[in-house]
Amino acid sequence: MIGTTEYGMEPGKFRRLVGLKGNIRVFCRVRPVSQEEQDSAADAKTMLSFDSDDDAVLYLANKGKMMTFELDKVFPPQATQQEVFQEVQSLVTSCIDGFNVCIFAYGQTGSGKTYTMEGVPDNPGINQRALRLLFSEVTEKAPDWDYKISVSMVEIYNETLRNLLGENPSDKLDIKMNPDGSGQLYVPGLTEFTVQSPEDINRVFELGHMNRATACTNLNEHSSRSHALLIITVSGFNSATGNRTQGKLNLVDLAGSERIGKSGAEGSRLREAQCINKSLSALGDVINALRGKHSHVPFRNSRLTYLLQDSLNGDSKTLMMVQVSPLPSNMSESVCSLKFAQRVRSVELSASSSSSRRHENSSTSSSPTHDSIELDSPPVTPAPLPLSRASSAGSTLSSTSRTPSSSRRRSQSQLSTGRLKLTA
Ligand SMILES: Nc1ncnc2c1ncn2[C@@H]1O[C@H](COP(=O)(O)OP(=O)(O)OP(=O)(O)O)[C@@H](O)[C@H]1O
User: Where are the transmembrane segments (predicted)?
Assistant: First the structure.
């Protein structure tokens, strides 16, 4: 039945889905029509509709045809920030158990990526809610475990990395292979802040926002054309057993995905669009190669995929939040985004049979039934605030612990030491 859905879902349904390791899940969020858009009657009528019986389906009326998109979850315009976060929070907290997690917001400019990830001051998005939840989880009393939460913020603009929590955010960062022969990658000079209080969380976001704004004349335009990454590392140490864990949560607000042809870009705009195209294509290629179990995964084809290498690999968990504008004038971009989302999701289906994918069963998640499914390139086109800065050795949070879910907890021999380490 087609109609605006009642927001909500079968309890526990997605809990099982997000528990799957090594898989990619695809959610879609449709942003509301703004007051301004409503006032301009020409572009106010949405072509999208929802299924009140199935919260994973989106319908789109396009050129007289009704297109159906099946995803893992569709959030209608009335979905709140809290409701969206509720559906991702078990993914977020799995990094306390040692998992690497990536959540990407993908979609054309103005489709709501930043609203979903960053949010607005009085209604924060996934980034802030995630950091607050992780902080409160690890500060819960539990014997024996001590945790450290450290945070980095990076922007990738025209294939250049900027250190948004650094003293000199204009400095360009590089990704390098560790010379110790460990095969690990690291980013020399990347700032990691140890979060020790809720106030630190506020400061992190204020500083990151201010540093992002300082190097550009128009923050909105600039943020549309760059990727913003919040990287949260949670390290645990059990003083009774000597076990160590380390998990990483990467929250990524991708650059706008509009196509170059449509935007008619020239000069520096064309270069920006080409860089965006390159990195979004590289992301698609990496997902394709990983799920197809290709012998070579082209992580090095873009800074974005190179930086996220250890969080896309192996038994990491990935969620793509595809953002869609409800306006008819954005329909062709919405179709492109949704088709890309379906392809990403169909790649996931190769990793577990459709009959088993709604049940937690890690053995199916890593045994693809197809060798490879082609994934096309996605469509393209002030002074710092004082903050408790981590030393290069990293300071631990005092008396922070939580009962570990020991069956899923992975021991690791090394803690991050102020440099972001990536497994090659
Ligand atoms: N779910 C929502 N509820 C209310 N307002 C929203 C929602 N999603 C987006 N908006 C508003 O729509 C506008 C565009 O959203 P946003 O800036 O997040 O888009 P974007 O995809 O990040 O764009 P860009 O790629 O240019 O950064 C903003 O004014 C934002 O506040």
Answer: none
User: Using a 6 Å cutoff on CB, does residue 113 contact ligand 1?
Assistant: yes
Residue 424 predicted with pLDDT over 70: no
Annotated binding-site residue? 381: no
Three-class DSSP category at 322: strand
- Greater pLDDT, 9 or 302: 302
In-domain check, residue 211: yes
ipTM over 0.95: yes
Cα(173) to ligand 1 centroid in Å equals 29
Enter the tokens of residue 266: 């020239």
199-230 burial, b at 16+ Cβ within 10 Å, e below that, comes to ebbebbbebbbebbeeeeeeeeebbbbbbbbb
Residue among 7, 28, 31 whose CB has most ligand 1 atoms within 8 A, to mutate: 31
CB 402 within 8 A of CB 145: yes
Count of domains for the chain: 1
Q: Please work out whether the CB of residue 381 comes within 6 Å of at least one atom of ligand 1.
A: no
Q: How far is the CA of 219 from the centre of ligand 1 (A)?
A: 14
* Pairing state between β 172-173 and 160-163: antiparallel
Q: Is residue 58 part of a domain?
A: no
Task: Give the domain CATH number at 249.
Answer: 3.40.850.10
pLDDT tens digit sequence for 50-88: 998 999 999 998 878 899 999 999 999 999 999 999 999
Is 108 a domain residue? Answer: yes
Predicted TM-score (pTM) of this structure: 0.79
Q: Which atom of ligand 1 is nearest to the CA of 323?
A: 21
Residue 170 is predicted with a pLDDT of 82
Residue 392 pLDDT exceeds 60? no
pLDDT band at 262 (very low <50, low <70, confident <90, very high): low
Please give the distance, rounded to the nearest whole angstrom, from the Cα atom of residue 387 to the centre of ligand 1.
29
Gyration radius of the chain's alpha carbons: 21
| pLDDT of 348 higher than 60 | no
The ligand 1 atom at the shortest distance from the C-alpha of residue 255 is 25
User: Residue 180, Cβ neighbours under 10 Å: how many?
Assistant: 8
Ligand 1: which residue has its CA nearest to atom 8? Answer: 112
Q: Is 109 annotated as a binding residue?
A: yes
Q: From the CB of 279, is ligand 1 less than 6 Å away?
A: no
Ligand 1 closest atom vs CA 115:
18
In a domain, 351, yes or no: no
To the question of whether residue 114 is assigned a binding role by annotation, the answer is yes
Q: How far apart are CA 168 and CA 389, in angstroms?
A: 14
